[in-house]
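Lab notebook, entry 630. We have the chain sequence and a SMILES string for zinc ion, and the next step in the workflow is to get a structural model of the bound complex before anyone spends time on docking refinements. Request logged below.

Task: model protein plus zinc ion, output structure tokens.
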Amino acid sequence: MEKKYIAYFSILLVGLLFIIRLFYIQVLDSKYKGSPLNNSAVTPKYDYPERGFIYDRNGVLIVANQPSYDVMIVPRDVKPLDTLEFCKLLKIDKEDFVGKYKKAKKYSPRLPSVFVAQLSKGDYAYLQEKMYKYKGFYIQKRSLRQYPIKSAANVLGYISEVTTADLNNKNYQQGELIGKNGVEKEYEEALRGVKGVKFIQKDRFNKVIGPYKGGEYDTLAIVGKDVNITIDIKLQKYAEDLMANKRGGIVAIEPSTGEILALVSAPTYDPNLLVGRERSKNYNKLDSDSHEKPMFDRSLLAQYPPGSPFKVLNALIGLQEGVITPETHFYCYGGFRYGRSSKAFMACHCGVHGAPIKLDMGIYRSCNSYFANTYKKIIEKYPTATEGMKVWSNHVKSFGLGDFLHNDLSTGRRGVVPDEKLYDRYYPTFKWGASTTISNAIGQGEILTTPIQLANMTAAIANKGYYFTPHIIKKIDNKPIQIDKFIIPNKTSINKEHFTPVIEGMYNTVEKGTARWSRVEGIEICGKTGTAENPQGQDHSIFIAFAPKDNPKIAIAVFVENGYWGSRWAGPMASLMIEKYIRGEVSRPREEKRMFEGSLREEYDKQLLTEQLEKEIKEKLKKELEEKAE
Ligand SMILES: [Zn+2]
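Result returned:
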């Protein structure tokens, strides 16, 4: 019986394979062979459409085009020429000429490829008149990017010549341009448009005889679509100016939509540097700067411990789990003791000694003891620390932390939200618990967040319990984008009513607490300062905020590397941006000037010096050891 089945199957299988092979030969292969591109008597002539423009949320033009001219070669058509004269015209030497010719021939003797890319306008005008002398060469017009506002380089990305990997994609030919990074990459298809092509028939003497098959295969170019992104370019540029001579990331989001208003990474660069003939030279320079890292988008990729802003999340979890109410109080005696040894002490500088501290004051004075107590109660509510940690971790993750946000930005990082599995790995033989993991109470320890994650968390608080996936696209071809994942709210695991007392605490933080210097007359700002310990140097300055308190228009997270503490740099910057966005102007010119002119360069140079010294010492030690060994 079984044997019979096997025989059946074998016959069926062989038959199936034949059918597949037949289909391949008859349909796919013939289609491939029938393409005029594979007919050696046919030459394609491409017509490149203009790439779509990019506008900001208010219709301000941020990316336009400028014409560019490439000298193209079809090696088969090249006739003997005065190489010396031609090289002089192209501003290359003979060696270059030979190399380029060989490369083009290797790619295809018959298909056009770029010989010299991106001529200047002057060179083009001059060369155009002489081109008739050089058979097999012609000039191809393309368009290059142009940035009227020197801003948002990290958001926009750039375009550059296709790589071999891109070439495997049928839509691209050698020498064509493609979006890399940012909006240019993510919305390449819309922006690029469709190139047109004319197939020209040649006779066996390589003379043009007319359109191939009467133009049956020819297509017209379709212009690229314009795109509006969610960025407010005025706010973006303002934030970049505030971050001059500092390092870090700023992300601002509109809570009611998830639209990204500003996405700032500092230091940044002028996007015009990555256009034209100097492109690869400039790119290599920017890319190899391992100290400043201008190509590293800190707003999306830098993972920092969130520090004190994370306390508001513990407050929300404590309320949701019912282990605290807004009336619950704790005492702080300069810190929190979590074990018997003298080291098991978390210091606190809230300055409230011996008086009961409730939720509101716990937030606005940023008391470590208050949140250590709350965190301990959350974990210890459950029979085992494993269960407690699982519950806590899931609440934290519901705010979009510890995972990719699944947005339309070309890059991102997960960050880290510790869970029970992580601690089991850390302590395989030790019975860990709330005390072991107490740093989680104040946003230190294992937790890592990117600026965009923290801004998104702030938006979720502003919305009292949900967030829209942060995104960058607003309109394509002037039509508003309706993508499900951007319009369906993501709910957090915290009930709406618990947000009210926490938001009150954040409001008081700016009214009379740790961020009172960032208060703006007439705008109700809710915020939380933070300082994240940094073993490599000065602490990082952090601030999260949203405003106004009712009907929030903007939620923001600011990270300034080595900025000492939250209210020194991050707080003032966030409040200036909020005022600028809501009112269009700022009322505190002195504060603004202090931020524009303030520099942390000395701090960064010190760090570089330390790194160099460490390297030297290490090398010296290594040498000594080697000598000893000898
Ligand atoms: Zn305290």
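Notes for the group: The chain has a mean pLDDT of 91. Worth checking against the assay data. Residues 332, 348, 350, 352, 367-369 surround zinc ion (CB under 6 Å).
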